[in-house]
Specification:
Elements lengths: L7 E8 L2 E10 L4 H11 L8 E12 L1 H14 L5 E5 L10 H7 L3 E3 L2 H7 L1
Parallel strand pairs: 2-3, 3-4, 4-5
Antiparallel strand pairs: 1-2
Helix pairs in contact: 1-2, 2-3
Length: 120
């Protein structure tokens, strides 16, 4: 029997050049491509986006293939003028597999989404 991943994504409307993508559930090989497609749209400089925040506070399962989608999105943003900030990782750091943590170490992060959006 095949079960769909228990993952939900939400994209907040762009305000003041800031876009927020919220992830809840699993960030894995199965869900990473879907997140990548959402990030491509949410981080579109043609729509006025200058910064995209990806909130991972409600993600309960990570694998390296899933977080590679984040790295791919960031690489696509290089040179576009759009920055990516990951939020909500503080509660996960100790439990992350080593390779996942190493991929995520390469990102700009903030502990709290609301504080990060307000400050940037």
């Amino acid at each position: 029997m095949d079960f769909a991943p228990r993952t939900q994504f939400a994209v907040d409307p762009i305000r003041e050049g800031k876009s927020v993508v919220r992830v809840a559930g699993e960030l894995t090989a199965e869900t990473g491509p879907r997140l990548l497609r959402l990030l491509d749209r949410a981080a579109d400089p043609a729509r006025g986006t200058v910064r995209v925040f990806v909130d991972l506070a409600n993600v309960w399962a990570f694998d390296v293939e899933g977080v590679e989608a984040l790295r791919t999105a960031r690489e696509r943003l290089d040179g576009t003028g759009v920055d990516m900030v990951l939020t909500g990782l503080a509660g996960h750091r100790r439990a992350l597999p080593g390779r996942v943590g190493r991929v995520l170490d390469g990102f700009e992060t903030a502990a709290d989404l609301d504080d990060a959006v307000a400050a940037n």
